[in-house]
Amino acid sequence: MNIHEYQAKALLRTYGAPVSDGRVVLKAEDAKTAAGELDGPLWVVKAQIHAGGRGKGSFKEADAGEKGGVRLAKSVEEAAEEAKKMLGRTLVTHQSGAAGKQVNRIYIEDGSDIERELYLALLVDRQTSRVSFVCSTEGGMDIEEVAAATPEKILSFSVDPATGYQAYHGRRIAFSLGLEGAQVKECVKLMGILYKAFIEKDMEQLEINPLIVMPGGKLKVLDAKVGFDSNAVYRHPDVAELRDETEEDPKELEASKYDLNYIALDGEIGCMVNGAGLAMATMDIIKLYGAEPANFLDVGGGATKEKVTEAFKIITSDPQVKGILVNIFGGIMRCDVIAEGVVAAVKEVGLKVPLVVRLEGTNVEAGKEIINTSGLDVIAADNLSDGAEKIVKAVKG
Ligand code: ADP
Ligand code: MG
Questions:
Q1: 167 to each of 19, 127, 154, 194, how far by Cα in Å?
Q2: Quick check: 108 pLDDT over 80?
């Protein structure tokens, strides 16, 4: 689960991290009051969307102005003006996808003098199963580009959970970032703060790009991108409250209400499968036959007819879906329940694309019977590769 920059900064502030003073604005008419509460002489007006690269992004609408999603202003009036231009418009960045994201919230914060921009991140490293620090002197840039062009400029190491964060971790980061004197101590403290927040709040990612050095030498968190482990959010009601559903894929949001494991993807074949492993295999084999999956969907072991119906509706609501492959291995899940769900869903929402169904396992005969007598235009498949081949052929000809 991701949150906005202003929420991340407010959270980090409670742990004692240095962040600028700022105000969030939801309505254009509040922009001036918000900007007026800040000291100036420089205001920074920042579009709040769950995607990075806002500064270098661009708006779809001409009336949003030529500039990106992070704008400098020299007066309260100018700050309010820029906020108004961005609110309600669609910002496209290299992380937002081509469709972009509508800007519904603006953060106006105090402008900072910047001497150097650094990169810092904490993340869960799946290779070592530990929390890792990643840092670089090349802040303010796309870290993937730095990693590709100059990997030697990135330092990454993991923290042993048995010891937790230690001062030498912070010193290692400070030296690699070229910090000196009192800055080293400040860095050691700040890294400790970030590590504590990361662990306590079950974060998955905490990226500060840039972490800046100001002319006096002090450090400041200038941007903050925070993602939480969704499976742990139930332990943090304060974090759950920060969820902004308007930022999420509507199909994924709907799926989460029915406790379906659904991830939207870019391809054309909708998949309904039981079991994460089988779902992965199904996606692989669709690719093998030359098409791309439109989603990952595991309906789970004990899915009811209602759940299957909802799952099918979510798949068919995706205009990208040009064909559907239902691939069920009935173990705990019964094939007849799946068949009933599919039939009920098709009756409710109609079927405009080819549908291939492969059923195997518990109550398979009853399941096939339900499909066969339903009058639906279903292509039956005998096994996984047969199913994949048939749906790709039906879609691609
Ligand atoms: P994004 O990463 O989405 O582009 P950032 O918050 O990193 O957004 O802002 C982009 C750039 O804008 C920063 O690298 C920094 O140079 C500048 N910037 C952002 N916030 C401020 C601020 N409060 N004061 C001065 N400059 C800022
Ligand atoms: Mg940034």
A1: 22, 24, 20, 13
A2: yes
Residues less than 5 Å from ion ligand 2, measured at CB: 209, 223
Mean pLDDT of the chain: 94
Mean pLDDT over residues 368-380, rounded?
A: 89
What is the tens place of the pLDDT at every residue in 126-173?
Answer: 999 999 999 999 998 889 999 999 999 999 999 999 999 999 999 999
195-239 pLDDT, tens digit per residue, is 999 999 999 999 999 999 999 999 999 999 999 999 999 999 999
Q: Specify whether 119 is catalytic.
A: yes
| Domain 250-396 grouped into CATH 3.40.50.261 | yes
Identify whether 207 is a catalytic site residue: yes
Query: Atom 20 in ligand 1: which residue has the minimum CA distance?
Result: 222
Active-site annotation holder among 81, 186, 207, 268: 207
Taking the centre of ligand 1 as the mean of its atom positions, its distance from the CA of residue 143, in whole angstroms, is: 15
Binding residues: 46, 53-55, 109, 112, 117, 209, 223, 274, 331-333
Global pTM value: 0.84
Which of 6, 107, 119, 195 is flagged as catalytic? 119
| CATH of 116-240 given 3.10.350.10, 3.30.420.270, 3.40.50.720, 3.30.470.20 | 3.30.470.20
How far out from the chain centre does Cα 335 lie? 33
Minimal CA–CA distance to 292: which of 380, 388, 397? 388
Ligand 1 neighbourhood includes 55 CB (under 6 angstroms): yes
CA distance 268 to 397: 13
SS3 content of the chain, % helix, strand, coil (to 5): 40, 25, 35
Q: Give 380's strand partners.
A: 357
Please indicate whether residue 51, judged by its CB atom, sits closer than 6 Å to ligand 1.
Answer: no
Domain 21-110 listed as CATH 3.40.50.1010: no
